Each structure stands twice: as structure tokens, then as C-alpha cells.
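Look at one record.

>
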Amino acid sequence: MENIIFDKERDSDHPNMQKELQKALKRFRLEGDKMGIAMAWYGLASIDTILGECEPARRKYEKAMRIYRQAGDKARQMTIRFALATVDLEEGEYERARATYEDLLEIYQLNGERDNEAITWHALALIDAHQGRHDMAWEKFQRSMAVKEEIDEEIDEEMSIATWHALARVKLKNSEYKLAREILLKMLGIEEAIGDDANRASTLHILAQVDLHQGAYDVAADRFLEALEFEHEIGNKDGEAANWYNLAKVDLGRQEYETAREKFQNALEIRQEIGDKASEAATWHQLAMIDLDQGEYKAAEEKLRMTLAIRQEVGDRVGEAAIWHDLGSAEAELGKYGPAREMLQRALAIWQQIDDRRGEAATWHQLARADLDQDEYEAAEEKFQKALAITQEIGNRGAEAANWYHLAGVDLSRQEYETAREKYQKALAIRQEIGDIEGEATVWHDLGATEAELGEYGPAREKLQRALAIRQEIGDKEGEAVTWHHLAMIDLDQGEYEAAEEKLLRALPIEKLVGEKVGEAATWHNLAVIDMVRGERRSASQKFQTSLSINQEIGNKEDESQTFTQIGLMAKGDGRIEEGLRLVILAAAISVSFESPDRVRDVPAVGRLASELDYTQERFDAVFDEVVEAYRRDRGRSLIEAAFGDA
């Protein structure tokens, strides 16, 4: 049987082949050669399949099938059935394709047709991979390779390498980085030994993607650049574009948006040149996401409209759903939860319509995170559970770990620490199993933070130190700063102020380097608290004001309010009750958006201090007005100076 697992990049001479087959078809008709006619229809259908023109291919295969049925040619009928199943696979009719392949597989095994058995196992594996059943795909790919090794001393090298690359991509997509790396390093050694530069470039590219997903940006960049050089040498434009595209994603990981934009533009130009519409759309999509990240909403909207138009033109329903998903995710990041939910629901409807279980699970997950952000814990838990069930069904281990992780976050929000710990442990076990190092560090960190909340400082320190070691190893600077900060907070809780200061001073330069403003403001705040404990009130005042400036710059009202409260209570402790009250009033006013003196007076800390000073309602209202005016005039700086007095 001819191999019907088509490669759309091969056989560039399709127009000439079609002309020759059409001439042959006319000749066979004149001669009345029915078997020749059938073979011509089969050849023309094969070209349609390679070109992705599925419906014309189906019609031509069926014409060939009618002739073979009339002739009673069982062998060729099976060939056509296989070809029709491949058309179903191309069109996403996975279950119909699976049923045909499984039926044919049974016949091939009974007849001892080992070559056809190997090809059919391969086709079934592709279906599983498309449907996200990655463990099943892995098993079937292995069966295909085992059969080929048994029957053929000279295995088709291209087919073998393509299969191993497909296996690695399956594992990469499933976040099983450890196994993907093992496969790729094995292939790289073979390709280097035989001087196979073309396949070596592909292997380096996939291996670099593994590095990229694990946050090893420098290693990933080196491998993408090496692959790019190979692709350029052999003139593979598609490969060049793919490497530029992923080099841009490395820059995104480093938050280097302008260099990422340049590299995406390089990829875009090549993809437009070679007419790769689907990949062109993917590149426009990434450029739009950079615009969104940088607040350039009109530019982002234009690019997304362009992307959507291309994806609808080429019938890319997966890509269309991905746009709605990413738009919804971006809106949620901006706190626009109404539009976010609407866009995510659009994505969800498409995923369900095309039976894309992976996409459906990802969108349930994102909808759940929107619920969690809005403290809608029951709704969030329900959606995370839906996502979890799908990821377990399709064998997506990385996504399963992410859902366990966020379900633990739901428990934490309810202060259900023990159940949160159990779920974190499940996420941790999976991430260690699949080699997700960056994800492992995140779970170690959050487990440590949870145990610190429970007052279990020894185990908490141990887990945070594990997270810190991994983050330093992989160069995750932002994560490293967060972990230093949490370790410092344990020291603060235990009164170990020098140790806390040392760790905060380790976090601070990293936070400045990576632009983590929230973390930097919190670090200045806690350094000020340490100064206050030591009686260094002038230094504390300066640090509190630095923290406030950052929070006011980024609009972080919650932390700004907390800092004013902290300073106010410290002033009260120094006997400056009235100055302290003014700062606590300001903190409460910020938290309720300056709505009214009555709402502010209901805040417990404000009420207590006002009672100590025997404030009448009239006096309180007057002080409230003075505080609001001071905030309008100098953002509360004069109130802080008054609280610290002559320090």
C-alpha cells in the first residue's frame, strides 16, 4: 500500500503532476481502461490531500473506490479506505478516521501486512496527538517504530526521524519536558554523527522550545540561533521564520519587548514571502499581544482584526478560538472581567464545537482564574474542576498540575490551609515527574508560604530555600526576588531583623532590575519597619515615603493604604495619637475611595483612635476634610512629616 501519511512540504512539482495525471485520465477513458482511470483518480486525489484540498480529494477517492468495488479488487479498496481516513484526519473528523484505521489495522494484523500495520499505528498516533491523548499517542508511535524495526533492516530514515520529532513535540505540548529532552538529545547525537544538518536543525529547534518553556532563555536562544544558521544554509525559509519567531518568544520571556517585536517582524516578512497564511496570522497575533502588554490598544486591535480575518479566510477555527482566548486573558489582566468572560466564552464555544479538549480545558481554567480574582470561590472551583477532569482525561500532565495548583489557591483564599497543602503536593509531584523545573520552584515557594501562614517556620524555610535554589539555577530573577522577600518576612515574624534586612537588600536590586514595582514598594515598606524597630525614625520616614511614591505611581491603593495605616499606628505608639489618627483616617479614606467621613469613621482603627481623643462628629468631619486636602496637595507627605516630628 502506498504511504498516505502525507507531508505537505514535499513534492513541489504538484502542478506538473496534476497535468500529467489529467492527460492520463483522458487517455484511459478513450481506451476504456477502468483500472487506469481508477489509478489516475487516486493520484489526483493524493495531490489534493497533500495540498489540503480535502473535499475534492474525497470525491476523487470515491470515484476510484467505485471502480475497485466493481472489479472486486479488495486490496485497492483497503488502500482507498486508508486514504479516505487520512482525509478525515486532515478535516478534523477524528473519530470517523479512528474507526476506519482501527478496522484496517485488524485486517493488516490478520493478514500479516506488517508494513501497513506500522503506517496505521502511526496514523492512529497522530489522531491521539491531535486530540490531546498524549500518552496513547506515545504508545502508538512506539508500536509503529517497533514494527518497522522488526520488518525492515533499513528503516526509512526520514520517516523514523519524523516520528521521533513528532514524539518529542507530543511530550513538549504535554509539558513532559524531561522525556522530550531525552528523545531530542538522543536524536541530536545521531544527526551530528551522520552529518544530517537538515534534521539537526529541526531537533535543535524543538530542543530550544523545551528550554524556552522551562525558562532557560540563554540556552534556548543559543540553540535557536544555531538552528537558524543551519536553516539559512540549506535555504529552508519556513525553518528560518520559525526560529526568528521563537527567538522573539525568548525576548518576551526576558520582557525585552522591542527586540521581540523586531524578530517577529523578521518572521512575518518571511512568512508573507512564502505565502504561509496560517503562520502569518500567528505572528500578527504575537505582535498584537506585545501591543496589548504595552497599552497600545488601537494598534493591537488592528493586528487582531487582521489575524482574525486571515484565520477565518483559511478556516483556522483553532486559531480563531486562540485569539478570543488571548483577548479574554488580556482583558482579565486589566481587570475588565465582563469583556474578558464574554471573549473567553466565545473561545470556549469554538473549542467545544470542534472538539478541541485541550483548548476547552485551557479556557475553563482561564474563566476560573477570572472568578478567583473576583473572590467568586465556588464558581472558580467549579471551573477549575471541569478543566482538571478534561486534562486528566486527555493526559495533559502539565495542565493537570496547573489546575491542582490553582485549586490550592482557592483553598488558600478560604484559609483552608491543610487542603491547600494537599493540592500543592499533587501539583508538585506531577511537575517533578514531567521535569517542569520552573513550575516545581513555584510550588515549593507557595508550599513554603502556606506553612509560614501556619507558623511552621522551619519547614517553610526549607521549602522556600528549595524554590530559591531552583530559581537561581535557571536564572528566574523575578522569582528569586519574591522568594528572598518571603524568607525575609519569616525573619521579621520571628524578630530576626538583621537577617530580614539582609534578605530584603538581596531582593531590592533584583526588583529594580526587572521592574517589579509592587515588590520594590513592599521591600521599602518592610525595610522602614525594621528601621522603626531600631528607633531609626528619620530613615524609616524616608523609606516609607519611597514605598508610598512607588505605590502611588502604579496606582496600588491597597498597599498605599496599608503603609499609611502602619505609619499612623507607629505614630500612635510614640504618643502622637492625633498625628497617627490623621494617617489612619487617610488610609481608610483611600480604601473607600474618599466616599464619606461616616464610612471612614466605621473603620475599627479609626473609631478607636477617635474615641481616645474624644472627637465629636463635627471635629471628626473637620479633620477628615483637612486630611483629604493634605492628600490632594502633597499626597500625604505633610502628614507623615508631622507624625515623625523632629526625628
